[in-house]
TrEMBL record:
Domain of life: Bacteria
InterPro entries (alphabetical): 23S_rRNA-intervening_sequence, 23S_rRNA_IVS_sf
Originating organism: Rubripirellula obstinata
Protein name per Swiss-Prot or TrEMBL: Four helix bundle protein
Pfam families on file: 23S_rRNA_IVP
Signal peptide as annotated in the record: none
Length: 124
């Protein structure tokens, strides 16, 4: 049994994604500091934050709810990465690495949500 959100691999990968996003956004133009850069950073921070908050809640239903929020933030990240690529702010292969990290977190979130929903359906 998981005692802390820190033990969840999806939280750990989410934290890695935050670090990668911050590294990528350091290279954005200065005039984007309060625009796309800030939005991307906030969405990235939201992913592991919601995983941690959800795991710390008392019910599985609340955990699933927060994981769903994290998944929504991940969709924001994927969209914002695409925007940054189209604007020329994130070069190749950085964009491929960020997309791969985001996809990994997405698969892990989806798997955990499915697992927890099965637990709920079984009466847990």
């Amino acid at each position: 049994m998981v005692r802390s959100y820190r033990e969840l691999e999806v939280w750990q990968k989410g934290m890695d994604l935050v670090v990668a996003i911050y590294a990528a956004t350091k290279k954005f133009p200065a005039d984007e500091r309060f625009g796309l850069c800030s939005q991307l950073q906030r969405a990235a921070v939201s992913v592991p934050s919601n995983i941690a908050e959800g795991q710390s809640r008392t019910s599985t239903k609340e955990f699933v709810h927060h994981l769903s929020i994290a998944r929504g933030s991940l969709a924001e990240i994927e969209t914002q990465i695409e925007i940054a690529v189209r604007l020329g702010y994130i070069p190749n292969p950085d964009d491929e690495q960020l997309a791969a990290e985001a996809a990994t977190v997405g698969r892990m979130l989806s798997g955990l949500i499915r697992s927890l929903r099965r637990k709920l359906e079984a009466g847990g």
